[in-house]
């Protein structure tokens, strides 16, 4: 049941450059998408979300883009900082349920 | 800033034993959740709880699992007879409304020997 996929298990980016993390989904009923960041031995920390009625949401250095026709969302981090190094999970939700469906995560490493 | 807390941080148990994992959700939240993450795999939903009853559960949440809100602050996950494959990180989460963002605790690492 791979409804939410993150096809890149890892990504390395130079400090100050843009990090782009991608996520694809298959279920067109999802109406809310979120990005979480996770450090080792900690729980997922909420970063940013987007409703399916929007195509962009921005919060400081973080921007999430949603392309519903392609069933694709991406998280842009600009500029990337070493403290951004973590595993990033996208998650999807639809109003008929209570649960988040998570992707498998992308490990981001920002090099100083 | 309010946060979800979980205890213990690490629990080691023998196969067949019962374990209880504890969570204190954010105080004004009404919806509570358990997720788990087996090492190297994705975070998976187990169960959601609202108004003192289960509102949704996954196929993982079989008869070995139960949840309870024994008082006004704690939310517990009980595994009646642990199996080796129950070894995982267990995350509690809470939200104010069903459609609100879910906030996660730091997790309990369960190791079943």
Which structural traits does this protein have?
heterodimer; A: 112 residues; mainly beta; six-stranded mixed beta sheet; five-stranded antiparallel beta sheet; 11 strands; 54% strand; B: 113 residues; seven-stranded mixed beta sheet; four-stranded antiparallel beta sheet; 0% helix; 50% strand; globular
SS elements, strand count of chain A: 11
Give unreliable regions of chain A as ranges: none
**H/E element string of chain B?**
EEEEEEEEEEE
* Overall body shape of chain A: globular
Number of helices of chain B: 0
Oligomeric state, counting identical vs distinct chains: heterodimer
Count of DSSP-assigned helices of chain A: 0
* Share in helix of chain B: under 10%
- Give the helix proportion of chain A (percent range): under 10%
Most extensive chain interface and residues per partner? A-B, 23 and 26 residues
Rg calc of chain B: 13 Å
| Termini gap of chain B | 37 Å
Estimate the global geometry of chain B from the Cα principal axes. Answer: globular
SSE order of chain A, one letter for each helix or strand: EEEEEEEEEEE
Major sheet details of chain B: 7 strands, mixed
Strand content of chain B: over 45%
Which spans of chain B have pLDDT < 50 for at least 5 consecutive residues? none
- Report mean pLDDT of chain A, rounded to a whole number: 94
Query: Mind summarizing the main beta sheet of chain A?
Result: 6 strands, mixed
Question: Can you give a write-up of this model?
Answer:
The complex is a heterodimer of chains A (112) and B (113). With 112 residues, chain A is an all-beta fold. Chain A is 0% helix and 54% strand. Chain B is globular, with a radius of gyration of 13 Å. In chain B, 0% of the residues lie in helices and 50% in strands. Chain B has 113 residues and is mostly beta strands. In chain B, β4 and β5 form a beta hairpin. The mean pLDDT of chain B is 94. In chain B, strands 2, 4, 5, 6, 9, 10 and 11 form a 7-stranded mixed β-sheet that branches. The A-B interface holds A 32, 34, 36, 41-46, 49, 89, 91, 93, 95, 97-105 and B 4, 6, 31, 33, 35, 41-45, 48, 50, 55-56, 58, 91, 93, 98-99, 101-107.
